[in-house]
Specification:
By secondary structure, the chain is an alpha/beta fold. It is 42% helix and 12% strand. β19, α23 and β20 form a beta-alpha-beta unit. Keywords: Amino-acid biosynthesis, Metal-binding, Methionine biosynthesis, Methyltransferase, Repeat, Transferase, Zinc.
Length: 776
């Protein structure tokens, strides 16, 4: 017996997003289900072969999902809302649960944030939420009073049979189905019914899990991985007890359970987990580094302990020698009961570095994607088993040493500037009340000033021009001319509509993070580094590999050109440092705070350049501020401190009469309002239209002092909001916030909309503001 290699999950989109294209073709009616199934089966087959070839001995199953692994659990368990239930379960039921019964109107809006279900429609889709602190979104299970758990979707068992049939004689491989654990599943579910408290459903739910495990055992499965990532959260006593109860029940089944925790330490749940009657535990040795030694010391030696020191959340090569050193104590104690895996499922990293042929070779030498991470797992296990590949370990040691010295990564100027950061005043020169007075005098805006959040419809022509510029069919001069024409057009439209504060429309931006990343030093982009965000939607996060700096101004010429086309105020538009960080792969050789401050300093220079160029209203988007919150509340204060400071680094240098805006999309504000207030933006715009201004409560309760633009129109749908709707919403806002401090604007940027609906919607918005001015 030797130390075993295993894996917690493999990306399912295919090397070149084959699943995405097959799904979208199927939804459009261009592919039959049999054709879709064939693509899916091929991906599963290839994934298994890749893992076998890499030397992974226990290979995950049910990590494949047509749409989402939580949705897989819902259909498996029969948690199907009445509005989708039908006589015989079929794959389309799952798709309807995810996408709604009618073709979904507009799921794809701005990068990276989730959506609320829209219960005004009969077959409305389930809500989407972020899977812990990843950028992956799951479909929230809905529990009703009439929900009865029962094995419904049998795909799991078919896929297990399919995989077992691949098992050759004498091969040292086996398969391990992965399930979202019952406690995590329940915790993440929304209890829509009121009669039954969530936790009272646990016994009934466990009956079905037992049936599932029983069936898997009958199929010849020995190990099942049960994921309970909520163990990384801070759980109340009753949720902790639920673990004791659940695993006492599940231990009655004939399979061996590998309980998997990841993304965090176990915190106060260490004792609880060490005492659960399961056959083994997987632990994330990276995110959980602080508690790794305590866990190794405390976890019972006769059980399996699986440790993940290969990062499933990031794209850096593992420091193999350091990993081996951290594993020594575990090896001494657990011997062949020690298993080696990535830290978590590899779902969150791109598939294969080999296909990238445009990356800087030095940078590429520091990276490992999913496939390369499997090889690292194997190298670690081999070394622990006394079969170290010395050449590989030495090469890795040299690489890690080189990286520390690399001029590609380290920039003395950036570091020198960062060292002075403590001397930078983070407060604006005058307090808000004083600034507000100066800004009122300078901008002379009416009550209820109107503005938009930045982007205007990204038409086919705009996207084509960008493509042509990238591939060389348009010269830079031609491209600039095309974008300037677009800017002129949006300026005219805004003037015609009568908007008070104009924007240039962001035609030159493909994406709010990529656009800036491409212009900053220290950022790199892959060709195929896609990661699933939800369903068929994938994102390609940039890689922050080195000290970040700004070689030259990024937005100034566009904003300046836009200002030259109008006498109205032109608002400048930047993406904030926290959002830049949050939607990228971030370097792991320095604290996130340090990287964030480097970006903030680069943005500070941009802000000051804009100001010099005559742009005196500047918006800094921080859509992802809330997303960055750590999983444990006890870590929130520290994160919010540096996140807010980075905003202040970016903004504190401007004159008192330069107006700083921020935009934060849809966020719950109640538990972060103090931090949002500490950002001290003169104006904040947020997404509130669908929540009927509910999100303003946090601002009211806190007595938030600065100006607010609560979104009055839902940009996720092509519906044109009426004047009355927007007047009513603003009146509601004015009952909560003094009218002098309110702005009128849409919920978010308009880039996914068409002009056909955008113009009349904005015209109505302006009429609404005019009507309100007459009223107040
Ligand atoms: N300024 C950006 C836009 O209008 C903001 C997008 C966002 O917050 N997601 O598109
Ligand atoms: Zn937004």
């Amino acid at each position: 017996m030797t130390i075993k290699t295993h894996n917690l999950g493999y990306p399912r989109i295919g090397d070149f997003r084959e699943l995405k294209f097959a799904l979208e073709a199927y939804w459009k009616g261009d592919k039959t289900q049999a054709e879709l199934d064939a693509v899916a089966a091929e991906i599963r087959y290839q994934n298994i072969q890749t893992q076998i070839a890499a030397g992974i001995e226990l290979i995950p199953l049910n990590d494949f999902a047509y749409y989402d692994q939580v949705l897989n659990m819902s259909t498996l368990l029969g948690v199907i809302p009445k509005r989708f239930r039908q006589e015989n379960y079929e794959l389309d039921v799952a798709f309807r649960m995810a996408r709604g019964r009618a073709p979904s109107d507009d799921q794809a809006c701005c990068a990276g944030h989730g959506h609320q279900a829209n219960p005004s429609k009969a077959g409305y889709a389930g809500a989407m939420k972020k899977w812990f602190d990843t950028n992956y979104h799951y479909i929230v299970p809905e529990l009703y009073d009439d929900t009865e758990f029962a094995i419904t979707d049998t795909r799991l068992f078919a896929e297990v049979a399919e995989a077992l049939a691949l098992k050759g004689d004498g091969q040292n491989i086996d398969f391990k189905p992965v399930l979202v654990g019952p406690v995590t599943y329940l915790y993440l579910a929304e209890n829509v019914g009121h009669a039954i408290p969530k936790l009272s459903r646990l016994p009934a739910l466990l009956k079905i899990y037992q049936q599932i495990l029983q069936k898997l055992a009958e199929q010849g499965i020995h190990w099942v991985q049960i994921d309970e990532p909520i163990l990384g959260l801070e759980l109340s006593a009753e949720w902790q007890q639920a673990f004791d109860f659940a695993y006492a029940e599940l231990s009655q089944t004939p399979v061996k359970i590998l309980l998997a925790s990841y993304f965090e330490t176990l915190g106060a749940h260490l004792d609880l987990v060490c005492n659960l009657p399961v056959a083994g535990l997987h632990y994330d040795g990276l995110r959980g580094e602080k508690q790794l030694n305590a866990l190794i010391a405390q976890y019972p030696a006769d059980k399996v302990l699986s440790l993940g020191l290969v990062d499933g959340r990031n794209i850096w090569k593992t420091d193999l020698n350091a990993a081996l050193a951290s594993l020594q104590a575990a090896k001494d104690k657990f011997a062949d009961h020690l298993w080696i895996a990535p830290s978590c499922s590899l779902l969150h990293v791109p598939l294969n570095l080999e296909v990238e042929d445009k990356l800087n070779p030095e940078l590429k030498s520091y990276l490992a994607f999913a496939k390369q991470k499997l090889a690292e797992v194997k190298l670690i296990a081999d070394a622990l088993n006394g079969q170290a590949d010395q050449a590989a370990l030495q090469a890795n040691a040299k690489l890690m040493a080189d990286k520390q010295q690399s001029e590609l990564i380290h920039n003395a100027q950036v570091q020198a500037r960062l060292a002075q950061l403590a001397n930078l005043p983070l407060d604006r020169a005058a307090p808000y009340s004083e600034r507000a007075r100066l800004q009122k005098a300078k901008f002379n805006l009416p009550l209820f000033p109107t503005t938009t959040i930045g982007s205007f419809p990204q038409t086919a022509e705009i996207r084509q021009a960008r493509r042509q510029f990238k591939n060389g069919t348009l010269t830079e001069a031609q491209y600039i001319a095309a974008m300037q024409a677009e800017i002129r057009d949006v300026c005219e439209r805004q003037e015609r509509i009568g908007i008070d504060v104009l924007v240039h429309g962001e035609p030159e931006r493909n994406d709010m993070v990529e656009y800036f990343g491409e212009q900053l030093d220290g950022y790199a982009f892959t060709q195929f580094g896609w990661v699933q965000s939800y369903g068929s939607r994938c994102v390609k996060p940039p890689i922050i590999f080195g000290d970040v700096s700004r070689p030259q101004a990024m937005t100034v010429s566009w904003s300046q050109y836009a200002q030259s086309q109008t006498d109205q105020i032109m608002k400048g538009m930047l993406t904030g440092a926290v959002t830049m960080l949050q939607w990228s792969f971030v370097r792991n050789d320095q604290p996130r705070e340090t990287t964030c401050n480097q970006i903030a300093l680069a943005l500070r220079d941009e802000v000051l350049d804009l100001e010099v160029a005559g742009i005196h209203m500047i918006q800094i988007d921080e859509a992802a501020l809330r997303e960055g919150l750590p999983l444990k509340k006890s870590d929130w204060a520290d994160y919010l401190r540096w996140a807010v400071n980075s905003f202040r680094v970016t903004t504190s240098g401007v004159q008192n009469d330069t107006q700083i805006h921020t935009h934060m999309c849809y966020s719950e504000f109640n538990d972060i309002i103090e931090a949002v207030a500490a950002m001290d933006a003169d104006v904040i715009t947020i997404e509130t239209s669908k929540s009927n201004m509910k999100l303003l409560d946090a601002f009211v309760d806190f007595a938030y002092p600065n100006e607010i633009g609560p979104g009055v129109y839902d940009i996720h749908s092509p519906n044109i909001p009426t004047v009355e709707q927007m007047v009513r919403l603003t009146e509601k806002a004015a009952q909560l916030i003094p009218a002098e401090r309110l702005w009128v604007n849409p919920d978010c940027g308009l880039k996914t909309r068409g002009w056909a609906e955008t113009e009349p919607a904005l015209a109505n918005m302006v009429k609404a503001a005019q009507q309100l001015r007459a009223q107040f």
